[in-house]
Amino acid sequence: MADNYTLLSQLVEHPALFGTYVLNQALKTNRFVQSGILTPDQQLGSQLSQPGSRIIIPFINDLTGDPDTWSDTKDIEVNNLSTGKQQGIKFYQAKAYGYTEFGQMVSGAPVADTIGQRFAAFWNRADEKTLIAILQGVMANATIAAAKFYDQTAKTPTEPTFGAKGFLGAIGLMGDVQDTSLGAIAINSATYSLMKFQGLIDTIQPQGAVTPFEAYNGLRIVLDDDIPVDLTTPAKPTSTAYIFGSGAVSYSRAMQSTETKHDPLSKGGSDAIVQKRIGTIHVNGTSLVSSFAPADGVSPTLAELSASTTWEIVDGVDPRNIQVVAYKAQLDPDLTPGATSSTTSNSGSTTSNSGSTTSNG
Known about the structure:
9 helices, globular
């Protein structure tokens, strides 16, 4: 096991004119994971400390069938309710950060304070990566994708750009509950720039609220650049937006321990801060495939969570109960960092949804 302590050579010595040591905090907003898509679930939480790597989420299906005829010549038939279960998976995770006494003393860098203050933000970023990986895996399953994934680049290849028509096609996958179950859309800044160009962003001031919010077709916008842009074809960048209802994904996490380790001999004296936790994130209405087994035998990797073979829809569950819709569309390369400008590419003609203007790249 490698001991990657923060050494003096990695720190800045504290000269008289240097002032307070500057902390370069990660510029991560984590807005997606904090958007309301996750709902703390006590039922999941109660299972975290139990043995095993899976979590069972039982449910009772709604009443089904047609009314029976009623008369005094026959008995009334009694019907039963059907049940089912979803399977989630636990994440057993640990992280440690360390430093040497000598390095901290000579440099004056507040390494220990920084570790203590930023550990919670680190776990939030980890949850964000996990959430996106799970959504990618769930939406990659063929059965779920047929009901919850709208790929405008495949459905209308001559008109692939993100816009109002494709958006309506995406939320239309929710059927007759599209206007009552969806409340927000999570996008990255490249998609947001295209929305602004189209002139379809509204500012809404909720009654009794102090802070207004921006909305697209009535849905609150959640802006987060952890949602990736696909630059496989630089002149035709694409991205997937996630349209969701509040509490579409259940989660729970429990910090098992926070410990410090001091070794007076190693590297002239060293300290480490270690945290261990158990957590789970689960898209309601889906289930872990029964045959799935993590490579390490216990806890899945992000790559495993993002695989289509890891997830399935629960038998008998109405797809509308999965309150997340994925909407994939092409972005404007001129508004997407890292893409090839449409004015210099031969990618063909691109149609903007902002009006009737058509530009030939």
